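Tutorial handout. Part one gives the primary structure; part two gives the three-dimensional structure as tokens.
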Amino acid sequence: MKTPALTPWDRVQLARHPRRPHTLDYVRALCDDFIELHGDRRYGDDPAIIGGPARFADRTVMIVGHQKGSDARENVRRNFGMARPEGYRKALRLFRHAEKFGFPLICFIDTPGADPSMESEERGQGNAIAENILALAGLRVPIVACVIGEGGSGGALALGVADRLLMLEHAIYSVAAPEAAASILWRDAGKAPEAASAMRITAQDQYDLGIADAIIPEPEGGAHTDAAAAAEAVGAALRAALDALVGLPIDVLLQRRYTRYRAIGRFQESQPMPNMPATVPPLPFKGS
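Part two.
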């Protein structure tokens, strides 16, 4: 009997699977001499984001990624991969470190979104995310980002501006969680499966839209069924992406990055109906 095709909601569940490999699993499998660096030099350290220099494919690279937990206790400690402002500022510090020493940057994305708590807002969550996006847009080193699970909202974008964006086969990349989108659109979080389909958040959708550059195949059943095979596939994709970027003149790299993001997004202008003006005249202003 032919196995039925996975729905977008099925892929959401696979992207969130608790046994799915996380950033540190891939780093341990693929890198040598990883040295984790801590703290943002302003407030504190955030375990929801890890990073530091490492050796990958005979190159020194800078690794930055979201980190979820493998059990309930670790998930609480790492806030389920939802970074606070100090996490994003730690990431920004590592971005600048990579630029200073000319290390290619590899970002692993796996978060339902940035931490939404009042404390994070008070410490400048929106500003921290915006600073990261701005920094990555002009960072003078090659950047490869890989969505290994959930890529949720601005929490993912803060690590997602890159020269190459890779996605695992069952990963998702979205402006909001399907449950949140369903609550906004239909006032019913139970319609999350319909929202997942409408939002086009799967790896294949993102590839078709020109946002993802490549889809990395997963073992049958998902990455959690064979973490070693998943890591091998991710490593091969990262090597290929870095080989294509390392060696390009920096000005060419930055121009291509700019062009890449200017080209994302499509729109269609509506045609005026018969007997209607092409433009609508402004309403008259009535002062007091």
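Part three, for discussion. Residues 142 and 207 are 21 Å apart (CA to CA). The longest helix spans residues 227-245.
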